[in-house]
Amino acid sequence: MNIGTLARETGISAKTIRYYESIGLTPEPDRQPNGYRDYGDSDVATLKFVQRARGLGFSLEEVRALLTLWRDQGRASADVKKLALDHIEEIEGRIGELQAMKRTLEHLTERCHGDDRPDCPILEDLAKSG
User: Among 25, 43, 73, where does a domain finish?
Assistant: First the structure.
């Protein structure tokens, strides 16, 4: 199949597919005699795997590690679990940061009158340095 068909089947743009190939995340496909890329079912499965992992927030390097483990039938599931647990820890850290941002914004919006006056604690806080 060509890259357009692969893009439709996976929901990943042709540009992104070419990017994944350029960074070695996915293998370069075979070429048809006319020079067009020629993809198969394994490429569809790989890209769907990548898309699902990216949807769960794994970085490209984490996806690369997961792909290596996925392809290795002799892998230890403990290695996969460690990657997932490390990712959960990162997510929890980001959640904490987002909650702190939310609390700050809630505090600032409570102090803002939200009327016709020009003074605004939100803007004053944003203008603070450091």
Answer: 73
Handedness of CA 23, 58, 81, 26 (dihedral sign): negative
Alpha-carbon distance 3 to 49, whole Å?
Answer: 17
The single-letter code of the amino acid at 30 is D
Same domain membership, residue 89 and residue 62: no
pTM (whole model) above 0.90: no
Residues 65-89 have pLDDT tens digits of 999 999 999 999 999 999 999 999 9
Helix (H, G, I), strand (E, B) or coil at 12: coil
Q: In 1-130, at which residue ranges do the beta strands (DSSP E only) sit? A: 30-31, 37-38
**For residues 121 and 58, which has the higher predicted lDDT (pLDDT)?**
58
- Distance, CA of 71 to CA of 79 (rounded, Å): 13
Please indicate, yes or no, whether residues 81 and 120 belong to a single structural domain of this protein.
yes
Q: Are residues 93 and 56 in the same domain?
A: no
- Boundaries of domain holding 48: 1-73
Average pLDDT across the chain, whole number: 94
Q: How far apart are CA 11 and CA 22, in angstroms?
A: 19
